[in-house]
Inverse folding.
C-alpha cells in the first residue's frame, strides 16, 4: 500500500478532482482563492441546482471522536449537494475488533464516493488517505493535535466575507486582508484552529496580534511560521489594548484545566471575556469570530451586535465544506 | 435573543409557515381540522408526489433522550416528503462541552430547514425555538414533563379515523367525537400523553371516563381543564365497568415502580390488562389505542382483533408528522 | 400473529417480491443464479439508472449488535438504489423499555418499506419477519449463531467472479465451480460464515478442503450437510499442504480466546497466517477471500497481490445486497 502523496491544491480545478485534503500546506494561494470563490457561487445557487451537482454520491462520514458540529456541517453540505451520507462512529466500528485504520478506510472506499475522517491521532488522515483507492478523496475533519484544514478554510472565508464590502462577493484573501489587523485571543497554545489560521494568514499583508496568558502563549513553531511569511506579528498585553486597532477578533476559550491551579485561572479569566461593554472600545466594523462551541468567553449580551460574526461563521462553514466536496468529487 | 412567542396555529395555512410548535395550546380548532385534513391528503398521495413536496429540505432531528419510535417516525415523515435528515443525539452533542441549548439550536439552524427536538426538561422546546432565526420552525417531540404535541395530534387523528365511517376521509374532531365516550385507562398521573389528549378533547362534546388506581389518578389540573370545556368527565371504579359504554379506549402502562410497594402493585395490576377475554364485554366497534411501546398491559392475544388500533395509530403518526412538517415548511 | 413461513426463493423474480430472507435454505439453485445475475446487472448500471429503481423507498436498518461493515454495506446498497435509510441501534431502541422484538418489527413496518435486522439471538430474523405485515420484506443480516445469508450470497458471488473468465459476466455457480477446489481455513467451528458457505457449496461439483486446528474443526452437522450433496469433502493437515491444489482460499480468523491455554494457541497460530511468502506455493490464479475484518491472519504484504480478493469481495457485497433489496422490493 503506497504512502499518501499529498496533492497540491492549486487554482486549477482539475488538480482537485479525486484529491485528498489532509493539511493546509496543500493549498496554493490560487487554490484558496478557488475554494472561496466556489463557496460564494454555491451560496447563490438555488436548492435544486445545488442538489443536481452530486446527485447520488455517497459520503462516508467517519468520526472516531464525537464532534456534532463538524459532523452535521459535513452531512448538511453533502445533502445539499444532492448526495447522501453514511455515518460511522468509533463506538460502533470494527476498530473495536482490532482492525487497522487503513483496512477500515479501504473498506469504506468500497461503498462510498468520498470519505470524511475525524480521528484523535495526528497523521491519521494521511494514513487513511494513503489506503484508499486512487481517485477516491478523503477530507480531514481534524486529526488530534494535527490539522483541521476545513475549519481553517471556513475561518479564512469568514474573515474575507467580514472584511469585504457588504453586498458584493467576498474579495480574495490578498485583497481583503491587506493592511488589516487580526487579533487572536485566548488559548493560543492548544488551539489547533488558531495554529492553522495563523499559518494560513502568514502569506498575506496582514498584522497579526496575539493575546494570551503566558501559560497559553502561541507556540514558537507557529510564531516562526508567521515570521517566515509577509504578515507582521505582535503580542499585546491585554485584550483591551489589542482591541482598539482590531479589524477582526478571533476568540478561543481559556480552559480552567490548562492552568497550574485555580488561582492562576481566576487571575486572568475575566480579561479574556468579550462582552457588549468591552466591545464599545472596538471599531464599529470589528468582526468577532469564534470556532464554537463557546462557554462563557463571549457573553450572550453581545450576540445581537451586528459585529458578532460567529453564527455567520458557522453558516459559512456549510458553504466552505460544500465547496471542498464539490471540488474533490 | 428574543423569547419564544408562540404562533397561533389556525385554519389558515399561511399562519403555519415558519412557525414552531411547542404546545397543544397553540392550536385553534380550525388549526386541528387543517392538520388532520392535511394528514388525510398526504396519506392518499403516491410516493413520487409526496417526495416532490419538500425535495432537498433538511431536518435536524435532535434527541437529547432516546426515543426510537418518535425519532424514526419523524425521520420517515421527512424522507417521504422528499427531504433528508441529520440525526443528533445528546451523547454526541456539544452539550457535553458546556454549550447552551440556545447555542446548539442556533448552530443547527445554520444547516437545517426545520428542527425536531426531544429534551428531558420542560420548556426546552420553547427556549430552543426562541433561539432560532425567525421563520425557521421547530417541532417539539417531547420536553420532559412538559408537552408532546405531535403525539397528541396523532392520537386525536387516530380517534377521528376510528370513530368516522370506514372507507371515507376522517371527519373533523367535532363531528366524529360528538356523543362518543372515550375511556382513558392506566397511569393517568404521569402520562404526558393522556394529559395532552384530555386537554385537547375538552373542547368537544365527548364523554371522558378516567380509570386509574388512586395512586395514579389524573392530576387535578388536567381534570379542571376538562371541566372548563364542553366535554363531560367521569371516573369509573374499574376498567370492566367503564368498558361497556366505551367507543374508544386509550390504554397506558401501569408501572410497578410508581407504587409504594410490590403488594400495592400486585393488588391492582390485573385489573388494568386488556385482553381478548375482557374485550368480549366491549362494543364491537370499540377502538383500542396505546401510545406504544407496550409491555403487558395489552395482551398479544388481542392483536388480531380488528378493534386493536394501536399499530394503525403508529402509522397515523407518520402521516400526522408529515402533515405538521408540510405545514411549517 | 402468524409464524413466519419462509418463501422459496426461486428463479422466478415474482416469488421474491415482498418475501423475507432469513436462511440460505430458502434459495433454489435457480434462485441463486437469479440473484447473482441481478448483482452483475446492477454493477453495470450507471448511478442515475440505479437510483431510479427504488426512488423514495425507506429501509429500516436495525442493528441490535454493532456491525459497521454489514450496516454500511446495506445503507450504501439502499442509497445507491435511490432509497433512504433509517438506522436503529439497540442502544437507543424501545427494547430497553421491555418491548418485544415482534412489536418493534411491527412498529418499524409502519414506517419502512423493507427491514434489515441484525440480532444476537438465533431465530430472531424469522420471529421478526413473522410479525411484519404480509408483503413487507425483512433481510436477515445475521442472527447470532444462526444464519447470515447475505454474507453467504456475497461469498458465493465472489467465488463465481474470481473463478470465471476475466472481463465477462460471472458464470453461474454450477459452471464456474465445476472441478474446482475451495479450501476453507481457520476457525471452522465457530464461523457462521463458513458454515453457510459450505452448505451452499454442497450442491455443486466442487472439492471442499477443510483446514483447522483440532479444537476448531468443522462441526459434524455441517460436514454431514456437505456429504449429502454432490461436493466432495476432505481435510488437510496444514494450510501449506492444502494450498497447492487450491483454486480459492477462504480464510477466517483463529482467535486466541478459543483455545484452552495460550500455549495451545501459540503452537498453531503461525500455520494459519497467509502471507506473500506462503502464497508463492499457491496457484497463480488462487483467489484469497476473507469476510473481514482481519487482524493478522492475512499479512498486509499480500494486499497488493492480484490474488488478494478480499477488498473486491467487500465491493461485491454492495452489489449482492443491492440485488437482494432490488428483488424483494
Amino acid at each position: 500500500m503506497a504512502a499518501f502523496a499529498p496533492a497540491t491544491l492549486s487554482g486549477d480545478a482539475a488538480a482537485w478532482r479525486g484529491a485528498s485534503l489532509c493539511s493546509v500546506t496543500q493549498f496554493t494561494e490560487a487554490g484558496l482563492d478557488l475554494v472561496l470563490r466556489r463557496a460564494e457561487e454555491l451560496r447563490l445557487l438555488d436548492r435544486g441546482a445545488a442538489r443536481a451537482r452530486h446527485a447520488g454520491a455517497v459520503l462516508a462520514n467517519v468520526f472516531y471522536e464525537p464532534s456534532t458540529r463538524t459532523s452535521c456541517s459535513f452531512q448538511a453540505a453533502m445533502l445539499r449537494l444532492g448526495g447522501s451520507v453514511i455515518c460511522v462512529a468509533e463506538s460502533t466500528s470494527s476498530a473495536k475488533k482490532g482492525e487497522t485504520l487503513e483496512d477500515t478506510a479501504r473498506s469504506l472506499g468500497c461503498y462510498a464516493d468520498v470519505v470524511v475522517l475525524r480521528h484523535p491521532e495526528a497523521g491519521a488522515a494521511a494514513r487513511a488517505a494513503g489506503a484508499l483507492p486512487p481517485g477516491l478523496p478523503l477530507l480531514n475533519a481534524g486529526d488530534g493535535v494535527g490539522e483541521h484544514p476545513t475549519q481553517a478554510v471556513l475561518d479564512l472565508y469568514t474573515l474575507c466575507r467580514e472584511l469585504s464590502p457588504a453586498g458584493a462577493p467576498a474579495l480574495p484573501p490578498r485583497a481583503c486582508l491587506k493592511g488589516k489587523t487580526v487579533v487572536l485571543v485566548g488559548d493560543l497554545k492548544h488551539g489547533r484552529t488558531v495554529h492553522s489560521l495563523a499559518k494560513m494568514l502568514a502569506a498575506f499583508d496582514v498584522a497579526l496580534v496575539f493575546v494570551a496568558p503566558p501559560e497559553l502563549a502561541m507556540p514558537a513553531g507557529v510564531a516562526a511560521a508567521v515570521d517566515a511569511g509577509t504578515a507582521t506579528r505582535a503580542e499585546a498585553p491585554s485584550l483591551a489594548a489589542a482591541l482598539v486597532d482590531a479589524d477582526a477578533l478571533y476568540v478561543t476559550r481559556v480552559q480552567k484545566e490548562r492552568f497550574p491551579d485555580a488561582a492562576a485561572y481566576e487571575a486572568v479569566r475575566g480579561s479574556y471575556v468579550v462582552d457588549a461593554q468591552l466591545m464599545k472600545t472596538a471599531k464599529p466594523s470589528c468582526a468577532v469570530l469564534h470556532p464554537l462551541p463557546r462557554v462563557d468567553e463571549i457573553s450572550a449580551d453581545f450576540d445581537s451586535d451586528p459585529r458578532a460574526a460567529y453564527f455567520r461563521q458557522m453558516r459559512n462553514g456549510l458553504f466552505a465544506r460544500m465547496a471542498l466536496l464539490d471540488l474533490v468529487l
User: Anything to note?
Assistant: The first strand of chain B starts at residue 58 and ends at 63. The interface with chain C takes residues 47-48, 50-51, 63, 66, 68-69, 71-73, 75-76, 79-80, 82, 84, 87, 89, 292-295, 300, 303-304, 311, 314-315, 317-318 of chain B (CB under 8 Å).
